[in-house]
Design a protein that fits this description.
Elements lengths: L54 E5 L16 E2 L2 E2 H8 L6 E4 L10 E3 L8 H11 L7 E6 L7 H8 L7 E5 L3 E9 H15 L16 E5 L4 H6 L6 H10 L6 H13 L7 H14 L4 H15 L4 H24 L16 H8 L5 H17 L2 H11 L1
Parallel strand pairs: 1-4, 1-6, 4-5, 7-9
Antiparallel strand pairs: 2-3, 6-8, 7-8
Helix pairs in contact: 8-9, 8-10, 9-10, 12-13
């Protein structure tokens, strides 16, 4: 094999080994997908231009030797598999191809295997690009399936590909070729050159593909969220760290909301602060169980409309106003006046005593209300008090 000057030799193990031969695939959990393929919901070819700005290629093979051979993309963090977390971050891609054994996923994707299976990341990248029939001008996001902190913000930063760069690569002290966006034609060019140079792509280090590209390195100093997204999960310690991190105080709510929306199959941006304020008002102004029940009813009301974020906001605002009116009545209404009985002056000594003990327990206040109602209906205070006392 002839070595081209300026390129390192192919010595050394691949960056991320592929799947061992013989792995069986798991069918996708999506009803209606034909065996062996979960495609675009519209039935289009992977990479068809439907107005979205990029295509996505996810490498989900690998033997996971440091996880004891576990199926790494299927390991959960925050109740969602690592693969599903990555797929959620690039859910707006025009098309998505996953390279690896088929598994159940949170959304439809196209599946392909590298040749040979277990041939390593360059072979997987090549197989994915062959399955991705995207237009030349469409950037291709290339990520591994073990990035639990990949976000849409990171994806948007990478696929922007401003200027004359042929690739935007996350850089956290070293280039991360599996957290990058590439222009399609230059990437295919480099893979073709490597295949010509080495005669094959199997087992070659992934970093070789970067050497002939004009790179834009996205560093933590300019985009700290990209550096966070670069934290991958290669060991069980990495998994434990990721699981603990999503439960930190400043991230747990967003993580939980994302997990619930993924589980329910909805994708809607809501004003979390407004819903929490509503829950607080209902809990304090009515009763604690009113908080979850009220937010449920708000969601139901919004769903009966168009189910948009604006519908949620309108329903939440109306329910919050109701909760505040409810609470205001409890503060402004003197004890004994909830039924509308006169409270400006007592009508008997018994009534005066009841007014003087306005901070009784709730049952006593209800009894006093009954007394006031009896007074208004009969005008006989003493009789009304006696009858109410007997009932108690």
């Amino acid at each position: 094999m002839t070595h081209v000057p300026g390129r390192p030799s192919a010595a050394g193990p691949p960056d991320r080994p592929g799947d061992p031969p013989g792995r069986t695939s798991v069918p996708s959990g999506r009803a209606g997908d034909p065996p062996g393929r979960t495609g675009d919901p519209s039935g289009g070819t992977a990479g068809d231009d439907d107005g979205r700005p990029y295509a996505a290629l996810v490498l989900a093979g690998g033997g996971a030797s440091r996880l004891g051979g576990a199926d790494k993309p299927a390991v959960t963090v925050g109740g969602r598999t690592l693969l599903d977390r990555v797929l959620a971050a690039c859910a707006d891609a025009a098309a998505t191809v996953v390279v690896g054994p088929r598994r159940a996923t949170c959304r439809p994707v196209d599946w392909v295997r590298e040749d040979p299976p277990g041939g390593g990341p360059l072979a997987a990248l090549d197989a994915g690009l062959r399955a991705l029939h995207a237009k030349p001008g469409v950037p291709v996001l290339v990520v591994s399936a073990d990035l639990p902190f990949l976000t849409r913000e990171t994806v948007d930063t990478l696929v922007a590909l401003d200027g004359g760069a042929e690739a935007a690569v996350a850089h956290d002290g070293r280039d991360q070729p599996l957290l990058a966006a590439y222009r399609l034609e230059p990437l295919r060019r480099e893979l073709a050159l490597l295949r010509t140079e080495y005669g094959h792509l199997s087992g070659l280090p992934l970093r070789l593909v970067l050497e002939g590209l004009r790179l834009h390195r996205v560093r933590a100093s300019s985009a700290p969220w990209v550096a966070t997204a670069a934290l991958d999960c290669d060991t069980w310690d990495d998994i434990a760290t990721a699981r603990a991190r999503i439960r930190e105080h400043d991230t747990v709510l967003d993580e939980w909301m994302g997990a619930v929306k993924a589980e329910l199959g909805i994708d809607i941006d809501v004003d979390t602060t407004a819903l929490l304020d509503l829950a607080r008002d209902a809990a304090h102004g009515v009763a604690r169980p009113a908080a979850p029940l009220t937010t449920f009813l708000v969601g139901y009301a919004a769903a009966r409309a168009d189910g948009s974020p604006e519908d949620v906001a309108r329903a939440a605002a109306r329910a919050a106003q109701l909760a505040r009116r409810w609470a205001d009545e409890a503060v402004d209404t003197p004890t004994g006046a909830s039924t509308g009985a006169p409270t400006s002056a007592p009508t008997s000594g018994d009534q005066t005593d009841a007014d003087a003990t306005g901070h009784q327990a709730a049952s006593d206040r209800m009894a006093t209300d009954d007394t006031a109602t009896g007074n208004a209906a009969t005008g006989d205070t003493a009789t009304g008090n006696a009858e109410n006392a007997d009932e108690r």
